[in-house]
Predict the 3D structure of the following.
Amino acid sequence: MPGVAVASYHIQINTGAKGAALEHAQYIGREGRFGEERYGEVEARGHGNMPAWAREDTAEFWRASDEYERANGNTYREYELALPRELEPAARVALVERFAEQELGTSRPYQWAIHNCTASDGREQPHVHLMFSDRQQDGIERGPEQFFKRYNAKNPERGGARKFSYGADKAEAALAYEGIRERWAKVQNWALEHAGSLARVDHRSLAAQGITREPEVHRGPAVSGIEARGEISHVGERQREQMAAREERRQVVLQEARELERGLQVAERVAARDRRELAPLAAEVPREDRAELERRIEADRREQLERTRVAAARRIERREAALEGAKPQQLPLFTRLVNQARALQDRLVQSFERVRDWVRERFRGAGLSPEEIQAGKAGFRAEYERHKAEELARAQALAQGRERHAQQKAADLARQQELERAAKEKTQEPKRHRGLGRGRGLGDDD
């Protein structure tokens, strides 16, 4: 979206197995052992479409789901959604309610809670947990046990509430989920426009948007919350390892691109050097020796081009192999590398076809004066010095890049050591009141 600020887009669809619903509902609501003092406050909360027996206390619904849903069924489904920072709290609530009504209608029971922790960049990280059941209300009053029984198509009043379907197979389910992603983007953009913000979100992949960079590693509220308390997050550690590996791969790709660009530059410099060297040489060689010299130069030129052609062919093979195994977001870069390698090969073929003309152009009819010969030699020396200066500047830039990378690694290591130190000190403190010293259960946090 050229010229438009891009807001953060994130949606994650989770499901819960039998026995996990009530605990997760307590977690997003900061109830029970998931108190606000330890896990952070709830910015806003709400629910809808609950059966009569759970309208006063939604925990009753999730408790019944854990108890009566079939053993291999999902007791809940959840959309974990990043909310735009550009929206005020009231606008975020309106956005969540609009999306819940749009996706769940008046049939599927749900509850939601907005959390707002601190992101890795120090700014707020608002997000919502929209937790719901795939069981659909159809106007028939059912008690807790019957609600979660198998649906009876012939006699609906005798069976449980019918489950919502996302498709007959994985392909249809994938299309359904893609539709959810798109609708979440649309409703966010509507809210941003309504709030007067120029920012917009895009649910499409980076490759589909024509962006060649790799996706960012999404830390998520859980990792941010855990590390903000000074505890060690294994997910955070894994994410840092992923970012380091991704940076290493990026440097490899950039090095390949630099080598190819350097190959093109070297080819141009060789041609420029030959023009400057051969013209003065042609003027100094006796006419009777010129034919033999041309023959030798032509043979040397062909040998040089052949070596370069073989190297170019190998480079194309490597680029094409990398292109076949490239990730979608890397396709534009690898395609460019392959095209550049093929362009160099085409130029070499053209050079092969006119080697003799190339030699004759430089050895015959030069008619240079001594002053022009000296000027040609001086020009060659200047070109050589410029080439050396560019190579030195390139080496210095590479060294600076390596130094910055080393500094970043040192900073990450220092931060990790600080987290480990804080965690060690925390374990030495006496257990806090209100049961905060007990196990964390889900092992997850905002």
Remarks:
- The radius of gyration is 34 Å.
- The CA atoms of residues 121 and 224 lie 10 Å apart.
- Strands lie at 11-16, 42-48, 76-82, 110-118, 124-132.
- Residues 238-406 form one domain.
